Each structure stands twice: as structure tokens, then as C-alpha cells.
Amino acid sequence: MELASYISGFTDGEGTFSVSFSQCSRLKTQIEARPSFSISQHKRSKEILLKIKKDFEIFVDICKMMSKGLHLDSEFLFKIIEKAYLMNESGKRKYSKQKLLSLVIR
Length: 106
What we know:
With 106 residues, the chain is an alpha+beta fold. It contains 4 helices and 2 strands; from the N terminus they run αββααα. The chain has helices at 3-14, 46-67, 74-84, 97-103, and strands at 15-23, 31-39.
């Protein structure tokens, strides 16, 4: 089984995404939203959990850059492509990193 498929299934079976809400008078909306993602597992699975954490942190960083519209700037798109190819290194891709980087107008 390839690592990408294993991580996907592992997260699906052992992970949870949720958003919890609570009243918070210091906020203008009076409601605080707290997104959460977690995976629980025995310590023998530490290596795979660390790999998932690494990929997730990169993914979050890319999402933050895109939410700021930075993917519309060639310089930042170049950085996003570089970061994206650090995630799921064993995964199959339609385009090579080199091909995408060669298409970015600098």
C-alpha cells in the first residue's frame, strides 16, 4: 500500500474534524468558533502521526497564503508550488514540480 493511501485511510478512520461554538461576550459576534482536527493513536504510530502533522502544517500555510490572494502573484505561486511538493511526496501528480515552476511567469 502506498503511503498517501495509508495516510488518507488512517485519518478517515482515526481522525475527526469539528467546529465547536461558545458564547463569548468580548467578541463582536458574541460567539466564538473553534475549528479542530485531531487524530488519536497508540504511541507505536508516532512516526505516521508526525508525517501527517508535517503535511498538515504545510497545507495550512498554503491555505493562509491563498486566502490572502498571494497565489495570484507569480513570486508567491512559485513558493506555493515548492511547498505543495513537500507534502505527500509519494503521491502521484499530473504535472512535475519542474514543469509547473517553468510555467510560472517571474
